[in-house]
UniProtKB/TrEMBL annotation:
The keyword Oxidoreductase applies. This is SDR family NAD(P)-dependent oxidoreductase. Gene3D superfamilies: NAD(P)-binding Rossmann-like Domain. It comes from the Bacteria. It comes from Stutzerimonas tarimensis.
C-alpha cells in the first residue's frame, strides 16, 4: 500500500530535505508551507511529473489551514499515514527586550503550530488506527539556545513535552509521536544566522567538528515513519554532533 506523508514548512531547508527523502523511500508527499508558491516550486523540483506530490498552503499559525490541508490530502489520496510538524520561525531579540507580542508570534508558529498539527493529524490517524507523527524540536530547546532566541528555545522545549503528551494519548490507537532535536545543520537558516566569519568558530565548538546534514534528518524521519518503528514513541532523537548529551 502506498504510504502518504505531509510535511509542514517543506519549501526549503530541512522540510524540503525530509520531503525529498520520503519521496526517495517511495512515499507520496504533500509539501506544505505558508507560501503556496514556494511549496509548489519545491514540489516541482523534487517531483517534476507531479504524480506523487501535492503542494498546499498551510500556515501553521492557522488551525483552519491544517484542516483544509488534511481534507485536500484525503480528497486526493484517501489516507494520511505520516505527518511531519517541521515549520518554525525564529526572531533575534535579547530576552529582556522581547515584547509579549513578539513572544506570542514565535510561540504561535512553533509551539502552538506543532500542538495543532498533533491534534488535527493525530485525530485523523487515531480514527484510522495507524499513524506516525514526527515533530521538529531543536538543541535550543534542550540547552536554552542563544541569549537572543529565548522565545524560539522555549517553544522548542515545549515541543519535546508536547511530543510526550501526544505519544501517551495516541499510543493505544496505533499512532506514534516522536521528535527530532537537531543541532546546527548545513542549511539556509544556519547560513543566514551565522556570518561567514563566525562559521569556523561554530564548527570548532561542535565535538564532531562538522555541521549536520539535512539529508540525514530526512533519513531519520523515514526510519521513524516506518510501520516497524512502532516501539519508539514519546522520544526525542538528538542529532547534534555531540553538543548535548543526555
Ligand atoms: N537548520 C538548523 O540547523 C536547525 C537546527 C535545529 C532545529 N531546526 C528546526 O528544523 C526545522 C526546519 O528548519 P530550517 O532550518 O529548515 O528552517 P528554514 O527557515 O530554512 O525553513 C522553515 C520553513 O518553514 C516555513 N514556515 C515558517 N513559518 C511558517 C508558518 N507559520 N507556517 C508554515 N510554514 C512556515 C518557511 O517558509 C520555510 O519554508 C524548524 O523546526 C527548525 O526549528 C533547524
Ligand atoms: C546558528 C546555530 C548556532 C544554530 C542554528 C539553528 C538552531 C536551531 O535550533 O534552529 C540552533 O540549534 C543553533 O544550533
Amino acid at each position: 500500500m502506498t504510504q502518504i506523508a505531509l510535511v509542514t514548512g517543506a519549501a526549503q531547508g530541512l522540510g524540503r530535505a525530509i520531503a525529498g527523502r520520503l519521496l526517495e523511500a517511495g512515499y507520496t508527499v504533500a509539501l506544505t508551507d505558508r507560501s503556496a508558491e514556494a511549496a509548489e516550486a519545491a514540489a516541482r523540483e523534487l517531483d517534476p511529473s507531479g504524480e506523487r506530490t501535492l503542494a498546499l498552503e498551510l500556515d501553521v499559525a492557522r488551525k483552519a489551514d491544517f484542516e483544509s490541508a488534511l481534507a485536500a490530502v484525503l480528497a486526493r489520496w484517501g489516507a494520511l499515514h505520516v505527518a511531519v510538524n517541521n515549520a518554525a520561525m525564529t526572531l533575534t531579540t535579547p530576552v529582556m527586550q522581547i515584547s509579549p507580542e513578539e513572544f506570542d508570534r514565535v510561540v504561535s508558529t512553533n509551539q502552538r503550530g506543532t500542538f495543532v498539527g498533533c491534534q488535527v493529524f493525530g485525530a485523523h490517524m487515531a480514527t484510522a488506527g495507524y499513524g506516525r507523527i514526527i515533530n521538529m524540536a531543536s538543541l535550543a530547546g534542550q540547552n536554552g539556545g542563544t541569549a537572543t532566541g529565548a522565545h524560539y528555545a522555549a517553544s522548542k522545549g515545549a515541543i519535546v513535552t508536547l511530543t510526550k503528551i501526544f505519544a501517551k494519548e495516541l499510543a493505544g490507537a496505533g499512532v506514534t509521536v516522536n521528535a527530532i532535536a537537531p543541532g546546527p545543520i548545513e542549511s539556509p537558516a544556519v547560513r543566514a544566522a551565522v556570518p561567514p566569519e563566525r562559521l569556523e568558530g561554530l564548527i570548532a565548538s561542535i565535538p564532531v567538528k562538522r555541521l549536520g546534514d539535512a539529508g540525514f534528518i530526512g533519513d531519520l524521519v523515514v526510519q521513524l515513519a516506518r510501520p516497524e518503528a512502532y516501539f519508539t514513541t514519546g522520544a526525542t532523537w538528538d542529532v547534534n554532533g555531540g553538543l548535548f548529551m543526555r
